[in-house]
Amino acid sequence: MAENFTPIQELGEFGLINSIQQSVKQFLPSTIKGIGDDCAVIEKNEEEFWVVSTDTMCEAVHFDLRYVPLKHLGYKALSTAISDIAAMNGIPSQVLVSLALSSRFTKEAVDELYEGMNHACENYKVDLVGGDTTSSQSGLMISVTVIGSVKKEKIAYRSTAKKGDLVCVTGDFGAAYLGLHLLEREKQAFLENDKMQPKLGTHSYLLQRQLKPEARTDAIFELEDLGIVPTSMIDVSDGLASEIMHLATQSNLGAQLYEEKIPIANETFNAGVDIFKIDPITCALNGGEDYELLMTIKQEDFDKIEKHPEISIIGFMTDPDQGVNLITKQGNVKEIQAQGWQHFKKPEKE
Ligand code: ADP
Ligand code: MG
Fold first, then answer.
1. Are residues 264 and 299 both part of a single domain?
2. What is the tens place of the pLDDT at every residue in 77-124?
3. Can you give the pLDDT at residue 337?
4. Residue nearest atom 6 of ligand 1, based on CA coordinates
5. What angle do CA 213, 119, 71 make, to 5 degrees?
6. Cα-flanking dihedrals φ and ψ of residue 333, to 5°?
7. Residues 163-217: pLDDT tens digits?
8. Residue 129 belongs to what domain range?
9. Which DSSP category does 158 fall into?
10. pLDDT tens digits along 262-290
11. What local confidence, expressed as pLDDT, does residue 4 receive?
12. Which CATH number does the domain housing residue 96 bear?
């Protein structure tokens, strides 16, 4: 490559976004927050902000249509976009869907995709109000823009955690990653019979988490009922490790997480140990696509959350010089490194 050109691989996805962020200026007072959080934040009225986010899924990068049913894909495209609204403590209201389609797709295929999207709209109580359609030279691309609102005093940024805050998560981790492994392993069976749908039999939980994930908008209502406003929040799309790094770095803090506290479903644990020989904690930290919420709350909110079946306390925020660490089940301190999914990442050196 010519001397003055930098391969994107050298920056990685986050480096590239940083570089874009440096080059972009904002002029409008109504732009409350631009690049750098799960959503852009825009003035709505005296009480509320708009929160807006876009997510793109590309064939052969994000999904393999040899085993992903289009209906599930439509549902997932909306879930992943809506998850970013939840990450701001917001409630989604409208979505716009843009498609790029190669000539191999039929009207019936698009119908199937929209069946899944319509199902998601019903479930999340959002309206699909527009989009764009173009042709593509290589496969299918789906881009979803989602709009939501949040009361100003309830907005949760990535950068506002405080030292001593409790680190909490919704749901459990690592299942979607093993679901993907399972599908990849079974690919041959799918290839031999193109009518075959993934069996939601023995490993139904793992497959469901991979193929048809849910955004945790339910948790936003739940937090409201509990009277909790998270001091910071992010959704877990790229693995718990990567996301706690974002919260810690952007809040200028460190964090201490406890391995034994990180929720992992039995099915994930057993499949990790028995079938794939992958340490379940590695799946939870570095797997990704869980679409759970990672948040910090004030210590004084401990009692409100302590016995909650869907929210687990997994650690606390520390001084920045203490770094971001995992205390293992054996009591060892292990530095957490963000090894989750990143586009353009160079392969690890041997
Ligand atoms: P998430 O994983 O929550 O969807 P991303 O890591 O994709 O977040 O994006 C982080 C931030 O960078 C967001 O504020 C997003 O809007 C912004 N961003 C990502 N790509 C671009 C781009 N090409 N141009 C401008 N902003 C971008
Ligand atoms: Mg996000």
1. yes
2. 999 999 999 999 999 999 999 999 999 999 999 999 999 999 999 999
3. 82
4. 14
5. 65
6. -95, 120
7. 999 999 999 999 999 999 999 888 877 667 666 665 546 789 999 999 999 999 9
8. 30-154
9. S
10. 999 999 999 999 999 999 999 999 999 99
11. 83
12. 3.30.1330.10
CA of 154 to the centre of ligand 1 (A): 22
Report helix, strand or coil for 329: coil
The residue whose CA has the least distance to atom 5 of ligand 1 is 38
**Which amino acid would we find at residue 331?**
G
Please report the DSSP string for 265-283 in residue order: -HHHHHIIIIII---HHHH
Smallest CA separation from ligand 1 atom 21, residue: 17
Model pLDDT, residue 349: 40
How far is the centre of ligand 1, averaged over its atoms, from the C-alpha of 35 (Å)? Answer: 6
* One domain for residues 142 and 188: no
The per-residue pLDDT for 193 is 67
Do 184 and 112 share a structural domain?
A: no
> What's the structural domain count of the chain?
2
Angle at 38 between CA 33 and CA 43, to 5 degrees: 35
Structure tokens at 190: 């799918």
Distance 43 CA to ligand 1 centre (A): 19
Q: Which residue CA neighbors atom 3 of ligand 1 most closely?
A: 38
CATH number at residue 209: 3.90.650.10
Residues with CB under 6 Å of ligand 1 are 17, 20, 35-38, 55, 84, 237
Ligand number nearest to the C-alpha of 215: 2
Asked if 206 and 81 sit in the same domain, the reply is no
Ligand 1 atom having least distance to the Cα of 36: 14
